[in-house]
Amino acid sequence: MTKTKQLDQKASTKRKGRSLDKVKGRNGWLFIAPFLIGFLLIYLPMIVESLQFSFGKIQYTASGYELDFVGWENYHYALFEHTTFVQTLWSSIGQLLFNVPAIVVFSLFVAVLLNQKMRGRAIFRAIFFIPVIVSTGIIEYINTQDQLADIMGQVATGGNGTSASTGGEEDANAFISVMDVARYFQGMAVGRELVQYVVDIANSVYDIVNKSGVQIMIFLAGLQSVSPAIYESCQMDGATTWEIFWKITFPMISPMILVNAVYTVIDSFTSKENEMMNLINSVYSGEANGQVQSTAMAWMYFLVIILILLLVAAIMGGYVFYQKRDT
C-alpha cells in the first residue's frame, strides 16, 4: 500500500506540473494575443503588399495607379545598376559588426560595476539610462544633424575649422589616433587591424554609451536574478573574483548576452543614423519609380539582417546556459 500511495503521489504531482504548464501556456498566449491580432489584421497585409511592390512597376492612370509585374527587375537594378547600393550595404554590415560587440561588451562591463554594492548606485543607473529617455527628443535630432559633432570639432580646433594637430589626414575630432595606440602596442605582435578597431571604439565612445542604456538594464536584471547563495558558496570554497565571474556570472547571464546581441542588431537596423535606411529613403523620394525600387532594396536589406540574426543565434546558441528549474 505504501508503494502504491507513493506512486499515486508522484503521478498526481506530475499531473499538477503539467496542468500548471498548460495554465502558463494559456496565459502566455493571452498576453501576446493583442500583438498577434494587430499583426494579422494590420501588419501582415502591409508586408504582403510591400512584397508585391518589390516585384512590380507603378503605372499612373487617371483613376490612380496600376502595379505591373516585372519579376526581378527592381532587384537587378539595386544590385547591378544603382551606383552606391552594394557599397552602402557592405558599409552598413561592417558598421553593424563593429557596433554589436562593442555595445554588448561595454554594457556587460557597466552592468557588473553597477551591480556592486555602493553608495549612489541608483543615481549611476539613472545616469546610464538617461540617453535612452532623451534619445527620442532633441538629442536625437542633434545627433542626426551632426550639429554636436561640428560644435565639438570647432572647440577642438579653436573655432577656425582647421585641424589643431599635425596628423595630416587624421580626423581632428578623434580622441586618439592610430599612432597613439600603436605606441602602446610596440614590441607586441598586434596587427594594424586590431589597433584600428581599438581606435574606432575609443573615438565612438559617445555613440556606444548613448546606445547601451537598454542593454545595461537587461544585464542588470540578469545579474540580480543570480542567487547570492551561489556566490557565497564559491567564496567559502576559496574562488577568486575572476573565477566567480567566468565560472558563475558569465554562464548565468549568457542568455542575456544573446538577447542583447539580437536587440543591438535590430536597434542598429532601425536607427536614424543607418546609412542603408537613409539611402532607401532617398531612393523612395528622389528617383523615378523609386517607390518599388526602394522596396526591393529594403527587402534585400531585411533578408541580410535576418541572416545576421540567425548567424548570431547559431554561434552563441551553443554557449548559452539555461538554468533548469523544477516545476
| Number of strand segments | 2
> What is the CATH C-level name of the largest domain?
Mainly Alpha
Strand composition percent: under 5%
Q: Helix count?
A: 15
Distance between the termini: 27 Å
Annotated CATH architecture of the largest domain: Orthogonal Bundle
Can you list the strand order of the major beta sheet? 1-2
Strand count, sense and barrel status of the largest sheet are:
2 strands, antiparallel
The count of domains is 2
Instruction: Kindly identify the CATH topology of the largest domain.
Output: MetI-like fold
**Could you name the ranges where pLDDT drops below 50 across 5 or more consecutive residues?**
158-170
Report the helical percentage: over 70%
Helix/strand-derived category reads mainly alpha
List the secondary-structure elements in sequence, H or E. HEEHHHHHHHHHHHHHH
CATH homologous superfamily assignment of the largest domain: MetI-like
Work out the radius of gyration.
26 Å
Principal-axis shape: globular
Mean pLDDT: 76
